[in-house]
Specification:
0% of the residues lie in helices and 48% in strands. By secondary structure, it is an all-beta fold.
């Protein structure tokens, strides 16, 4: 059973960089044909796909966040990481990591694995 766990600070100040890590167990992030994504859900809004790192290490980003987003991985730790720069209060959301077989994630499909999510608040 694949499990994903998000970790990182729950409070970030405006203009700072948000860094979150997703630790994966029960499966390798280098296994072919799986894609590892970051998705967020602001309060009262729907899911927003942020970006994905593929099993190969290739990265894909939402055009709306591309200038501020970076996703990387540490295969030795079986983790992948999100960095979001220049945050504002509008970046306040629950942040999820997920394993999928597609690049762009817009919903929780039954075949996917998601972390439980972590609340991040941007406030001074």
């Amino acid at each position: 059973q694949v499990q994903l766990q998000e970790s990182g600070p729950g409070l970030v100040k405006p203009s700072q960089t948000l860094s979150l890590t997703c630790t994966v167990s029960g499966g390798s992030i280098t296994t072919s044909d799986y894609y590892w994504s970051w998705i967020r859900q602001p309060p009262g809004k729907g899911l927003e796909w942020m970006g994905t790192i593929a099993y190969s290490g290739s990265t894909y980003y939402s055009p709306f966040l591309k200038s501020r987003t970076s996703i990387s991985r540490d295969t030795s730790k079986n983790q992948f990481t999100l960095q979001l720069t220049s945050v504002t209060p509008e970046d306040t959301a629950v942040y999820y990591c997920a394993r999928e077989t597609i690049v762009v994630v817009t919903s929780k499909r039954p075949t996917a694995y998601w972390g439980q999510g972590t609340q991040v608040t941007v406030s001074s």
